[in-house]
Amino acid sequence: MELYVALKLIWAVLLGVLLTGLGVMVGMDMGVGTLLRFVGRTDDERRAMLNAIGPHWDGNQVWFILGGGAVFAAFPTLYATSFSVFYVVMILLLFSMIVRPLAFEYRSKVPAWRWRETWDWAFLISGAIPMFVFGAAFGNVLEGVAFHFAWDGQYFQDGSFIWYVLNPFAILCGAMSVALSLHQGGAMVMLRTEDPMATRAKRIGSVAGWVAALLFAIGGVWVARMQGYAFTAPVDPGMAATPLHGPAVARQAGAWLANFHAYPEAWAFPAIGLLGMILGPVALRAGRPAIGWWLGALAWVGTIFTVGAAMFPFLMPSTTAPSESLTVWNASGSQYNLTWMLVFALIFTPAVIAYTGWAFRVMRGTVKTDAMTHDDHSY
């Protein structure tokens, strides 16, 4: 295998790893924010929940940067096209994300009930919307996106952004993403807070995990009947990084299952995802939130790599010009670019993981409501 092809494959896997890290770590924080109004019934209870993730939430946003940076540098054509296709959705995502740090910093600055209640709604919105958009994006690329390129490489969008948010399959995927986030958030609240918040979080987090499992199963049946994409002619993995004059591609019913039929070991991904969603709530019900958290992380691993295995090598197929679909082969950066990016990724990705683990270990333990109330440095 030539080096350029190997680098493309490595970066396809790394992209999956970074998106998984985003789902697990950012999803946990977003889940706590979404649960805030439902699990916390008093101001002190809600402050305890915020301080449970207070030392970690901003550090976890690094996974957003890593995921976006990986797409920007390793798959620049995908970055440019996807951010254009989903421009309005991205703006919605960014505005909701901007509100989140403001809510952390300003909520407890004023003791007025209406002030804090407003920021609690901000936590709900800034927690649920990003996770919904994250899941809906996977649904959109599975269905295909309406775009094409002119002879000079100019991008043209052929569909409405409203459809990308409101089509039924995207809604299902978005709801599943939110459910996984609520499970992770529920496990975190159980780990870091006292009763009655922990008991309420256990109930909601466990139900959310089972809802995610149900939606995952429904989505699997949906994908099996969906018009997927397949090459109808031989493809050169080392091809130039341009979507123009690409190989012949056709839409075929059940095409997204072709890789699973060709490589049966790939069925391990949906199996891992489904088991994580089923057993995670069982662990929460049994009072084992740490195990439930890790099973929730496995659910994210299984989900994202199931999508990757089904679509490979497609990254963002085109419904209007299938032969111009973006793939691992034609949307990547140069060999020089991918080589240096890999060097930096091998240095900084383990550093981020190590730092995150260290931070959670150092700041472990339960947030005591009484101590937090009299702490000027708490949220």
Based on the model shown, name its key terms.
mainly alpha, elongated, Formate dehydrogenase/DMSO reductase fold, 379 residues, two-stranded antiparallel ribbon, 15 helices
Distance between the termini: 53 Å
Order of helices and strands: HHHHHHHEEHHHEEHHHEEHH
Radius of gyration from CA coordinates: 21 Å
Q: What percent of the residues sit in helical stretches (DSSP H or I)?
A: 55-70%
Please state roughly what percent of the residues sit in beta strands, choosing from under 5%, 5-15%, 15-25%, 25-35%, 35-45% or over 45%. Answer: 5-15%
CATH overall fold name:
Formate dehydrogenase/DMSO reductase fold
Question: What do we call the CATH homologous superfamily?
Answer: Formate dehydrogenase/DMSO reductase domain
How many strands, which pairing sense, and closed or not: the largest β-sheet? 2 strands, antiparallel
The CATH class is Mainly Alpha
Extended strand count: 6
Helix segment count?
A: 15
Task: Show unreliable segments.
Answer: none
What would you say this structure looks like, in words?
With 379 residues, the chain is mainly α. It has one domain: Up-down Bundle (Formate dehydrogenase/DMSO reductase fold). It is 70% helix and 6% strand. It is built from 15 helices and six strands. The protein has helices spanning 3-39, 43-53, 57-60, 62-74, 76-85, 87-106, 113-143, 161-166, 168-192, 197-225, 258-262, 268-285, 289-311, 335-362, 369-373, and strands at 147-149, 155-157, 227-231, 249-253, 314-316, 326-327. Strands 1-2 form a two-stranded antiparallel ribbon. Strand 1 and strand 2 (155-157) form a beta hairpin. Helix 1 (3-39) packs across helix 13, helix 9 runs antiparallel to helix 13 (289-311) and helix 10 runs antiparallel to helix 12. The longest helix is centred in the N-terminal third of the chain and has 37 residues, at 3-39.
